[in-house]
What does this fold into?
Amino acid sequence: MVLSACGGRKPLESSSRLTVVSDSGTLPAPERSDLTASDRPSLIGPLDTIQVDVFNIPELSREMQVDASGRIAMPLAGTIDARGRTSAELADVIEATLRGRYVRNPDVTVNIKSSVSQVVTIDGQVVEPGLYPVTNQMTLLRVIASAKGLSEFARQDDVVILRTVDGRKMAGLYNVAAIRRGAYEDPAIYANDVILVGDSPQRRLFRDFVSLSPVLAAPLIAILQ
It folds into this structure.
């Protein structure tokens, strides 16, 4: 790994909390199992969109979005916790709730219309931190653009991508300004990646990794312990 020190600081070395991956300028792509938990596709999660159909009661049938806490609200049934349930399980809960609200023999079907499980998180010194859907050919610069760009005083040489690769927690330190100059490639971004730009509360958990702000000649890759 070739690094140009900034302000006389020493290059980052391996420690008890991380292992620097030498001779690697690319954060490895995740395995298929890292992208989606084995049971996630069949479970309802926050911000998913579902279709609830109540047979012979069209005024109760509707498309709705699960809120950020994992709940839905519908007439007569009230507020119901949908998070972590399958479609069939949620239908059973809605049926039981409606039955208790004087609906005779309710027959409910629930379908997941869209899921936001494939998202990337960006935090820190960007205009709009948050969760963003991962699309084909998503890259670091494109995610930053989705977050409306860097904030005015963002540290462009201090961007970390956190990723799980084959069950291991890994991190890559990147310099956005260097990417824009063409010094090295704009890295690919995958579902479940966490991008930390400059300072953020979550970033401070990785003090060993981010205590330096080197001007990178290539990305710095490390395995977190």
